[in-house]
Amino acid sequence: MESSFITHPIAPVYDSESRILILGSFPSVKSREAMFFYGHPQNRFWKVVAAVYGENVPMTVPERREFLIRNHIAAWDVIASCRITGSSDASIRDVTANDLSEILEAAPISDIYVNGRTAEKMYRKYTEPVTGRECICLPSTSPANAAWSMERLVEAWSRIRGI
Question: I need a labelling partner for 58 at 20 to 30 A (CA). Which of 64, 68, 71, 162 fits?
Answer without folding.
Answer: 162
